[in-house]
Amino acid sequence: MENRSMWSSRLTFILAAIGSAVGLGNAWRFPGLAAKHGGGTFLIVFLLAMLLMGIPLLMMEISIARKLRRGVIESMRGIGKKWEFVGWSATSNAFVIVCYYSVVFAWVILMFLNSWQFAGMTGDNETASQLFLELTQTTGTVEGSNIPGIMLICLLIAWGMIFYCIRNGAKSVGKIIKLTVFAPVVLLIVMAVKGCTMPGAMEGIRMFFVPDPGAFLDPSLWIDAIGQVFYSLSVMMAVMFAYGSYVDDSSNIAADTAIIAFASVAVSVLSGIVMFSTMGGTDMLDKITDSGISTAFFVYPTAIVNLTDIGWVNALFGASFYLMLITLAIDSAFSVVEGISAAISDKFHIRPKTVTITVCALSGLVSLLFITQAGMAWLDIVDNWTNQINMILIGILECVAIGWTFNLRKVCAEINRNAKNLKMPYIWLAASVQFIAPMVLCGLFVWNIVTLLQSAVGYNGYPIWAQIIAGWTVSALVFASGFIAKAVIASMKKKGYTEDEIVWKD
Q1: Measured between alpha carbons, how far is 230 from 274 in angstroms, rounded to an integer?
Q2: For residues 428 and 420, which has the higher predicted lDDT (pLDDT)?
Q3: CA 458 to each of CA 58, 224, 290, 343: distance values in angstroms, whole numbers, following the listed order
Q4: 234: phi > 0 → left, psi -120 to 50 → alpha, else beta; which?
Q5: pLDDT value, residue 506
Q6: Distance CA 178, CA 71 (A)
Q7: What are phi and psi of 211, to 5 degrees?
Q8: Over 80: is that where the pLDDT of 437 sits?
Q9: Terminal CA-to-CA distance of the chain, rounded, Å?
Q10: 105, 221, 252, 426: most buried, per Cβ within 10 A?
């Protein structure tokens, strides 16, 4: 791997990792969950989970990938050959995620391009809340196969942007990331200033930051806060293994990871300030939901048209909001593709750019399903299984493999290799990887399965056949992918293919 692409600088790596970690979930899911769970109460649990689990697992993935110089598939094989299937599962799950995440990205582009329409909707809540539905022609069910022309155009734009950003791996990402990481922060600050100057905004800020002691007793608070930590750091998604494999040997992983985690928290809080101040200023605090899609595409547009009595000002604010979402979405989208590309390229010794083109083409074809009139329903089903079932189970397997079948002290030493003042204590890493994270993830997994099976209609009332196809079948394929790959590789070996020897050298 002597010619492996590397980050041009420490700053480039940090920005790339922040870009991947900070995505749409920070901007719209985090504020919604805070509203659902007593504001400051959710913040406290979120920060606790970040310290106890998020940061240690992020350090673990990045350090292992740097040491082995491989993506997630080969890195997990370096931990132990029997664990390679975990890397395949993470890669396959990431492929499913990017297929529908690219459509969410396309939706954001669609709303940005149509923000001018808010100028003629001042005070018209009904029309504003229906704009997204009219543009996408969404049925809300699993029925409807037509693809609106405007959605196809936006999806092509989304995939064009994704490929452009990662066409040359770490090299092209390093150039793009310096714009796409800072742009949303600037836009968020501008929107926060605007929101905080509105009458009623302070009521929203108070709701966001002041804890509700009674909320601590709600089990769903802990489940949602812990889940949000994993989503907001891009762990268990193949991404950080890819990015870690491009990190220079002189990098200080302990310090860099702390910066990445802090940045993710900061953007989440800033997004919360924007959402709560704006909704408070428009007297719509009771409309915030824990569904990011609902908040961004149905609820927030009604707030936009009530910001001022001047239509073009509202339209400009709307354009700024969706531009901010675009800059958040693009980083997360192309980082997932890079995680897949790096893993496959390392495994089969294929030119990275060739793999990237192939992944984008295949993902793009699959994503067409999600821009049909029934696309939102299919997306909702697939998203639930990939996040609530697959990703959690992958996290459990990672913790067991690395924490219990490998020498965790070697991982800790790699994390602290260049650390000076800030070091990861072994007891903190071991407690997290061996006990806290796997136990909590097991609890989340059981909770999600029981909740799903207890409902007579399954998930959100969708037809059972649709849940079997887009949920259980997709999950089965994700975890079967490693065993399928093993059979394919065995056949390739008969034709001369040779696997690399992955060895952790002390």
Answers
A1: 23
A2: 428
A3: 33, 20, 20, 34
A4: left
A5: 77
A6: 23
A7: -70, 150
A8: yes
A9: 18
A10: 105
Q: Which tokens belong to 394?
A: 């992958």
Rounded-to-10 torsion of CA 77, 83, 89, 91: -20
**Count of all residues that appear for the chain in the document:** 506
Stretch 275-300: mean pLDDT, rounded?
Answer: 85
- Buried-state track 336-349, b at ≥16 Cβ within 10 A, e below 16: bbbbbbbbbbbbee
DSSP state of 22: S
- Give the CA distances from residue 500 to residues 34, 121, 346, 438, in Å, rounded to whole numbers and listed in that order: 46, 61, 9, 30
The single-letter code of the amino acid at 474 is V
Q: What sign results for the dihedral spanned by CA atoms 209, 235, 110, 139? A: negative
Look at the alpha carbons of 196, 197, 202, 203 in this order and tell me if their dihedral is positive or negative: negative
- Give DSSP secondary structure letters for 404-430: HSS-HHHHHHHHTTT-SS----HHHHH
CA-nearest of 176, 184, 106 to 148 is 106
The predicted structure's pLDDT at residue 50: 96
- Report the greatest alpha carbon distance in the chain: 72
What is the DSSP annotation of 440-494?
Answer: HHHHHHHHHHHHHHHSTT-STT--HHHHIIIIIIHHHHHHHHHHHHHHHHHHHHT
Q: 3-state secondary structure string, 179-221? A: HHCHHHHHHHHHHHHHHHCCCCHHHHHHHHHCECHHHHHCHHH
* Number of H-type helices and E-type strands within the chain: 26, 0
Closest CA to 264 of 295, 296, 240, 297: 240
Task: Report the CATH number of the 10-493 domain.
Answer: 1.20.1740
Mean pLDDT, range 41-69, rounded to an integer: 96
Q: How far apart are CA 369 and CA 382, in angstroms?
A: 11
| Residue 372 DSSP label | S
| Domain ranges across the chain | 10-493
pLDDT recorded at residue 3: 67
CA atoms of 338 and 299, how far apart (whole Å): 33
> Which amino acid would we find at residue 242?
A
Distance CA 349, CA 129 (A): 49
